[in-house]
Amino acid sequence: MNKKDILSMTLAELEAEVTALGEKKFRGGQLYDWLHVKRATAFAECSNLPKLFIDRLNENFFIMRPTVERKLVSKLDGTTKYLYKFPDGERCETVLMSYKHGNSLCISTQVGCKMGCSFCASTKAGYVRDLAPSEMLSQIYETERDSGRKVESLVLMGIGEPLDNFANVMKFLTLLSSEKGMNMSLRHVSLSTCGIVPRIRELADMKTGLTLSVSLHAPTDEKRNAIMPINKRYDTAELIDACKYYFEQTGRRISFEFALIAGVNDDTQTAKELIRLLRPISPCHVNLIPVNEIREREYRKSAKVREFQQKLTEGGLNATVRRTLGADISAACGQLRRDSADNPEKK
Ligand code: SAH
Fold first, then answer.
1. 105 and 47 together in one domain
2. CA-to-CA distance for 307 and 313, rounded, in angstroms?
């Protein structure tokens, strides 16, 4: 019999499972507390549960827990990159960063990615599978356990497209914010998307309070089509309309990611086009990132990041340059997984 993934269950689901096993409903609450607050990694640790019930739990459920396959710690700022391995052998990357306002964790939502952005290492070997809610949650739990640091904010900006794994990501957010569990306010969560328009609208209607980051990287259809295939499905005008809707519904400003690539999107004309595109939906925020160089492409970091920022600011946009953390362990996102020991993609 296939054991069920208990860490992916909401409190109500757990109560239903427990009752089905012939136990009292309150045992579900006790179990939920062991899993999500005390962070038990084995049912045997649940000392206030009857021995026979623990046996039934072991027969029917498993507790998701990835192992740390690699860990890189920056000597410059303590940024820590984890390569986690799940029980089926698949891997994902998770990055812990420290800021003045606390520790922030960047988690993955899929193994690989279908989106095909030309500058991104995570998508080069294609898509393997979605991550379960428990696999997203356990990236946080395992990182807190290993580092001894508390995760105060979260970004869904690791490997994968969160809006392409919508149901699992929404369930993960429910678990993350549950009062009886991790109890993180979704105001401390940012979700990054390449622009799956219908899902942005759906998310807006859900009014979760999370911050939406949109990976824009180019301001016109012609330029965006060349680097982000998703734009051929949902064009720039539709995307900006959906962003406007998100702001109207939630009152949360959109953050636009813009990775500056030398000779591709760092010229004055592009800055002007970007101002023209985003001014109508201001207030919003533009996050400029010097592109991370990956070996499959000739893309180089732009030397004009400050200049570009200044043009945007003069044009009335709120633009900042993302602080580089962990420069000494700065393999671009997705490269650690691809280079892992038994990955056939390894070169
Ligand atoms: N699929 C989601 C989230 C994962 S990617 C999305 O597209 O937003 C996280 C962010 O890193 C995105 O903004 C993505 O465009 C950016 N990114 C990917 N490869 C990059 C690279 N080589 N340099 C800089 N940013 C990159």
1. no
2. 10
